[in-house]
Structure formats: C-alpha cells, structure tokens
Amino acid sequence: MSRPVFIMKRHAYLILAHRNFSQLKKLVELLDDERNDIFIHVDSKAEFDPHGWTGTCRHSALTFISPRIRVNWGGVSIMRAELALLKAATSAGKYDYYHLLSGMDLPIKDQDTIHSFFDSHSGTEFINYWKFKKTTFSRFHYYTIFPEGAGYFLTNLANNIFKGLQMAVGYKINRDVDFRFASQWFSITDELARYVISREDWLEKVFRHTNTCDEIFLATLVWNSPFREKLYVKEEIEEHLVNESNMRFIDWTRGESIRHPWTFRMNDWDLLMSVPHFWARKFDETVDSGIIDRIWKKLTVEKD
Q: Which residues pair with 231 in a beta bridge?
C-alpha cells in the first residue's frame, strides 16, 4: 500500500522597501522558511547593494528584482512596483499565496500559524476594503498633471489647481469605472495574481494620470471581477465593517498624520501579542529598535 503524498504549499512574499535595511534584513530572516520565497523591490532612490545579503536566507529563495523603479509617495510608480513584484514571483513559479508587505512590517505570528490559516482558507482572497472618504473621489475622477508629484509641494499645488479647474467646468475622467477603496497590503491567490498581471494595460490606461492610486487600483480591479465572490468575510465587506480582512494590524487611531499609521514601540508589546493578525505595520528602527529586536528574538526562538 503506497503512502499518501503531501504537497507542500508555498507562499511568495513581495516586499516594497526604501530604507532601514538592517530592519529589512530582520524581516527577511523571520520570513525565511522552506515554504516561502521572498521577492524585494528596493526604491531606485535608495543607496542599496544586494551583494551583502548573500547567505541571509537558509531556506527561502531571495530575489531582489530589477530594474528598480523610482517610487514616489502617492505616485503611480507604487502600482508599477507592485506589478513588477507580481510578475517576478509568478515567473519564478506557482505559489498558493502572494503576500505584499512593506519593508517596515514584521510578522507577529510564527510561520506554522500563518501557513495553517491559509491552508484552511485556500482559494480565498484577503483584501481589506474601506468605505470611501469624501476626498477619495478626487484621486481618480480628475486628470492629474503630475501623477508622481503628490509628495512635493509645487507639483501637488499644480495638481490641485488643475483639479479645481476641472471641477469648475464639470470635467471628469474614468466615468465608466466602478472604483473601490482598500488597504494597499494584500494576500492573494496565484489565480488572482496572474489575473492582475493580465490586466496591466487596463490598469495603466485607467490609473496613469490619477493621484494616490495605490489604495484603489487592486481594490477596483478585484471588485469588478469574479474574484469579488472569493473575498474573505465578503458579507461584512459590503457593509464596510471589516477592519482586519487582510490579516494585517495597522493602527490608524494614533497615527502621526492622516498619511501615516502609528509606529509601534516597546509599550505596544502586549497589544501586538494579543491581536489575531499575522503581520503588523509599521516599525521603524530609528524610532524604537527595541520592539523590532524583541519580536525578532521571540519568533526566531519559536522557529528554531
């Protein structure tokens, strides 16, 4: 009698990084697992040499994708970097899940717990949908002259002036698209990852002259596709009640500004250990390296 064959399910971690590379290395070490491969895009504005990372992973394949894209806050470049990560990962193989993280994130659960959860929810898409704010509509219904300029005073001023002129005359773009709004960070299946890549031309056409589309492009694409029926807790998403459906813990209630969530510190240890999420953001070694080291030590000991 032959023994049953167990096929190991594999995950791809996609990481957008731009600074704090010693912190990034700790993130990579915590993701290093025979069931994971890791793909990293480093902002081309950053001074970074991947050669010093040889041997960082003992179990996972680690890939720094190229060419590196110049990424600007709120720019369409963020969408393009995410698509580049998805293309690199899907070209490398077939993964059961693709998890997008920032280089400022950390896991707060061990890999066995994470894999067990996704094994039991196979085929489900994890995207955290939000209710639209009044200001969100202006991101995609008005032509943006400088789509990479949201983070700079003069280009942002020019964008707002031109947007005001369009509003005054009733001009809009993308009138026929049913837009949706969600957290940028996701965990999606191989089927959806390849679908997103197949719609790259449509995404470029719709979003190349929009503003801060990183929280809109994937949410819109998925909502207007059959994958909408595979969203995690979709009955609550439609009522805009879900606040953890991408399994990431992000504290906006204490954020330094409306643009940035709270940066976790040592005093947040008990909170981080009590929540049901698998990853948390954000952490910053220049603000509090102690909390990063404590999480790294805890999960490293559990892994060994």
A: 125
